């Protein structure tokens, strides 16, 4: 689901909600402990009597060359900025190539994250989330529907807040150094992309960075492990959702399939070529741009044959920013198309609200 609020302390409100992070047993341990033939009932997500996970192969997903986006050649960069803006407006998800994230660093990240998921459940359980604002959360994720049914997603996950304050599990030992370097490199990429999108909207880059408080931007890393599933048609790794924040950078191992994006009511597979990463436009960028950028609705499906490992880094505004459409864009457009909302409160609401198929973003839209 969407990201949790960044804070070392629970807000006054989030302690009254049911905790979605209750950690009973890892999915991996269930798969390993028996010759599993059928999906345990708690993981059955057949909402409304069906769970169609079919999708069309997408060969037209935009590819953005980060080296062109940061080029000192004004013509090359201008073309890249225009192409980047089209990708954010049309699809809301794209592949990023020549991003400067070393292959060795990504390989080390996946190896150490996999080591973490291999730890015994009793070691990982110390990171069970106590509230929506816990800085490190590991375990299961429970989805509550508007009919008060609760389902557990078919995945094990680790979420940690890495900026402006850095947190990390103590094991495996190399994890801290690897994540710190990876997260820092991703922040630099995101800051450049925010600058490029500001340029495309004819907004001053310094104005945008100040308005969004990018120096203290809320950044979290989420690792998701999806073991093979005996009945993948009855469950999901992640239900349809939009990401919060500005941009999410997603790396998957060996270009593994599973991520699907929805465009104009049709689901498309998002499977990156080697050395590409996936970028999702977040809800808060759509709000800030007054609708010029579109946050994509996406989901994760699972399969019978093999496991899937993915590492996403979500990048938001400062945690106490009131995020609304940029004043200069509202003036230009003649109206605001979205309501403003405190970033921290938005994040808490994403975790604790009942899943009804609508995103928080839908509820923030103003219909004239």
UniProtKB/TrEMBL annotation:
<keyword id="KW-0408">Iron</keyword>
<feature type="domain" description="Fe2OG dioxygenase">
    <location>
        <begin position="216"/>
        <end position="317"/>
    </location>
</feature>
<dbReference type="InterPro" id="IPR026992">
    <property type="entry name" value="DIOX_N"/>
</dbReference>
<dbReference type="GO" id="GO:0046872">
    <property type="term" value="F:metal ion binding"/>
</dbReference>
<dbReference type="InterPro" id="IPR005123">
    <property type="entry name" value="Oxoglu/Fe-dep_dioxygenase_dom"/>
</dbReference>
<dbReference type="Pfam" id="PF14226">
    <property type="entry name" value="DIOX_N"/>
</dbReference>
<keyword id="KW-0560">Oxidoreductase</keyword>
<dbReference type="InterPro" id="IPR044861">
    <property type="entry name" value="IPNS-like_FE2OG_OXY"/>
</dbReference>
<dbReference type="InterPro" id="IPR050295">
    <property type="entry name" value="Plant_2OG-oxidoreductases"/>
</dbReference>
<dbReference type="GO" id="GO:0009805">
    <property type="term" value="P:coumarin biosynthetic process"/>
</dbReference>
<dbReference type="InterPro" id="IPR027443">
    <property type="entry name" value="IPNS-like_sf"/>
</dbReference>
<dbReference type="GO" id="GO:0002238">
    <property type="term" value="P:response to molecule of fungal origin"/>
</dbReference>
<comment type="similarity">
    <text>Belongs to the iron/ascorbate-dependent oxidoreductase family.</text>
</comment>
<keyword id="KW-0479">Metal-binding</keyword>
<protein>
    <recommendedName>
        <fullName>Fe2OG dioxygenase domain-containing protein</fullName>
    </recommendedName>
</protein>
<dbReference type="Pfam" id="PF03171">
    <property type="entry name" value="2OG-FeII_Oxy"/>
</dbReference>
<dbReference type="GO" id="GO:0016706">
    <property type="term" value="F:2-oxoglutarate-dependent dioxygenase activity"/>
</dbReference>
